[in-house]
Amino acid sequence: MIEKFRDFIFSISNEDSAQSDLARHIMIDTNFPWDTSIEEIKGYLDFHTSMGGTNDVFQILIKNFAKYLQ
User: Fold this and answer.
1) Which residues cross the membrane (predicted)?
2) Contact 64/19 with Cβ under 8 angstroms?
């Protein structure tokens, strides 16, 4: 599942949207928990986007990831 999330992040990173901005931040985050579970990743992103005021973008990203998996 994490590999699919990574693929999703890379696939949207070149778009021109707030979601792709978040994807690019994820890609350069040296502390990003790639080696954990998808739930840990969601928690990490939920926390950091809440602190940064972009949690709405995170919510959209998670919904679009669910669609990507279908």
Assistant:
1) none
2) yes
Output the CA–CA distances (angstroms, integers) from residue 67 to 10, 29, 52, 62, in the order listed. Answer: 16, 24, 25, 9
Pick from 61, 69, 5: which is nearest to 36 by CA?
Answer: 5
How many whole angstroms separate alpha carbon 33 and alpha carbon 16? Answer: 25
**HSE (CB half, 13 Å, CA atoms) of 44?**
16
Full residue range of the structural domain in which residue 19 is found:
2-69
pLDDT tens, 13-59? Answer: 999 999 999 999 999 999 999 999 999 999 999 999 999 899 999 99
